[in-house]
Structure formats: C-alpha cells, structure tokens
Amino acid sequence: MNSKIAQIISQLPSLNFEKSKKFYQEILGCELANEYDDLLIFVWDGIEIHLWKCDDEIVAENSSCYIRVNDIEAVFERYKKVLGDTIALKKQPWGMREFYIIDDSGNLFKFGQPIQ
C-alpha cells in the first residue's frame, strides 16, 4: 500500500463563472478542462486547479494559493506582459523572490522562488 499523497489540487471560490473563465483563460493562460453547474476545472501548466461557485465575497477575498516556480523571472515576465505594472517582483525577508496576482473573485496567487 502506498500512503503518500499523489496530488494536491487547489480549490478556490469563484463569484462569477463567466468572469473567472475569461480571467483564467485569457490572463493566466489556463485551459478549461471541464465545466459543471458548481465547478470549473482548469489545467494550468499541466496542473489542475478547481473553482467552485461561491456567493460570499469574504470567502473569495480571504482565499489564496502559493505557487513555487523554478524560474521566477520567466514567470513574472509572462504575466507582466498581460498585467503590466499591477504586479511587481520583490525580494522578501523570508528568503523568497515573489510576486502576486489577484483573480477576478479576489483569490490571491503568490508566486515564489527561493533567493539563491
């Protein structure tokens, strides 16, 4: 028996599926894999991410996901092309280089790579 975790899939709230589909596809570059009445399933750089239908702004504005990347400069440049100066790459005192993106519902995505 293999008791190791095989995969972790982020499940974040969406206040509006139509706006979320547009944001995740056009801004983040995700592929919509499946759509149900109360769930959207995207594939983002080969990783699944789920959005569930939510009507509480407070829940969405207090949800986040931390994404570690191997080349923070390349990922930052990719999103800077579509988001412009709304994002900034910073060195953090906890030893990470990070930038943040907030989606259409208020979910926070933190991208980071250890400072080497």
TrEMBL record:
Keywords: Antibiotic resistance. Residues 4-114 form the VOC domain. InterPro entries: Bleomycin-R, Glyas_Bleomycin-R_OHBP_Dase, Glyas_Fos-R_dOase_dom, VOC_core. It holds the Pfam family Glyoxalase. Belongs to the bleomycin resistance protein family. The lineage of its organism: Bacteria, Pseudomonadati, Bacteroidota, Flavobacteriia, Flavobacteriales. The keyword Transit peptide does not apply. It comes from the Bacteria. This is Bleomycin resistance protein.
